[in-house]
Amino acid sequence: MSIFHKFAGLLMGVLQLLWGTLTNAGRLFVNRYRQFPIAYTTLSYFFFTMAFCYYPVVGHWLTGFVMMSLPLAIPCGLISCIYLLYKQQKMIATAGLIWVLFSFLVVKRLVGTSVGDIDMSPTQTLKVLSFNSETFPTNINNGFDASPLKADIACFQEYSPNQQIERQYAAKVEKLTCFDKDREIGLALFSNYPIVNQYGRIWNRIHGPDINGFLCADIAYGTDTIRVVNVHLWSMGVRTNQAVSALKEGHIGQFCFEVIDTFRRLKEGFKNRNEQLLEVESYVAGSRYPVIICGDFNETPMGYSYGKLSQNFRNAFEEAGQGLGFTLNRHPFCVRLDQQFVSSDWHIKTCETLSGISFSDHFPVVAQYVLKKSLAIPANILAQRKPLTHTMARN
Question: Which of 77, 108, 139 is the last residue of a domain?
């Protein structure tokens, strides 16, 4: 018998053994599933929920609902593990408990874990602010103190022209649309460093205001160029407070309508944000410049956008924030929708939510960064600003 035939026979034997093992395991799983259908279904759902949150390879709107349910899937999965241990199903229960422990890799996105592992006090820091200003309510425009919103670079969403803000910066890029006959709103990016290149887009929205989009600006920062992206992903306008009010007042029909409408808005939001993020990523993927992405993502840290960006970028609040850092200043309050992501070129020094600035339905997020290469470059060289040749006009 030739060597080829011997090898083919050996390979066939291994495949038969593997197939038999998988078949027996499958039969065992089916039998156990029939005995404990609720516990096994719960663990299976928990497994896929965690997998999607950690590595969101599928951008379908349905995965958005699955990922959003992780905070509920974790305790349900833990209860199922305890129940299966009680029923002497030790192998599946142990595997489930290990998966519960792995879930903390995702849950930690919710909490800032500020650490000071490197002394960056003598280095040049870059202060970046991101704020959904809700068009600056008209009652604050007169006598408005804009100094708390001053930074080296500031990114505004739902921005309407404000002289107090604009006089604090040397350069700007705007993308505004007509909101009504009296105002324009949109995106604005301000910088005290020269803007050398820029691109922006407002996405069209049928039957709604065109306020979502992004601005991408290349900025001359000392002896380097950095790329800053100001993004405002699809707004859902979910009205959870109206559903709660209807339930409290006993209006069941109105409550059901609000729940169905919320589901529809969430579905629409998941679908459109996934498509919008792909376009934003095309401007930062493989960038030769250090990247900062900030703005209103209209998704929690369990969302697709956060998970997708986390594969290549680091979240500033997750690494250098403290506490929970909620940024929504309206019902349901306890969410963080505004984020700042950076490439590996940066050290994240601080990140905080400015909850004292409360005129908008969002709180500002401000962070300080240190360019890693600056740790080896004298601070006086990095701090030199290139001459400002022009200020970007409204685009």
Answer: 108
